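Quick check before the chapter quiz. The format below is the same one you will see on the exam, so make sure you can read both the input and the output lines.
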Amino acid sequence: MQPVLTRLQTRRLDVDRFEAPPIPVMIGTRLFGGQVVAQSLDAAYSTVEDRVCHSLHGYFVRAGDPARPLRFEVERIRDGGSFATRRVTARQEEKEIFVLLASFHGVESGPSHQEPMPDAPPPSEILLLHVPRSPASGPAAIVDMLQVDPRPDPRSVMPPRKSVWIRAGDCMGAQLDRHHVALAFASDMNLLETAMRPHGLFWSTEGLLATSLDHAVWFHRPFDFSQWLLFVQDSPTAHGGRCFVRGAVYAANGDHVATVAQEGLLRMREAADRR
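Here is the expected output.
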């Protein structure tokens, strides 16, 4: 089993209950949302045969503890002729922290169209950011990332859009469901930073509260996540302490392979609340 998938794999306790230990490289102050999305999808996949996920929608109920194990309970909502539906509840110490609804579809043919992939320099022309492979390196210790248009300074003001090349090289040779799990993990990486750009905010901004509220992924076409994928993001709106970010994921050949959408919390603490 490839290292990236080993880290995200859940262990079956009984027919529809699974668990996962903490991920060493993910230890921090808060559980990374992409981890619980990916592991919830992994648990759901373990209860489905001969179908692949085409969409998932999840809500982050409360912050998780990255140092504690996770338990996943799968409900088999429906097994139809073409589609299957699963609900997954992720818990830590009996508290619900995340709820996922995922739909699975049998492979079939049909009409096909897409908008063209936006222009972007290929990964070979972008300097790879060498992220230390250490417990402090977080999600980037599992997935490689190349910023096409990085901010020159975390406080820089830029339009609410960006493009990022991502890959998980250890996925080479895995089945499509494993690539789905890995991309579900990566789809939450640095997503809210897109909405921070027009306000000159960054994760390290004093008093900033930024966290995922919900998350959705649609898988459109097969892909190989061991190869570079272009993740094109934009944030069309932010208001009332919340922001919305959407993204389209393309293979290097131009195929639109997935779409991502997320609403997040984006607000500043009052000075009195920082104490």
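If your answer matched, good. The first strand starts at residue 11 and ends at 14.
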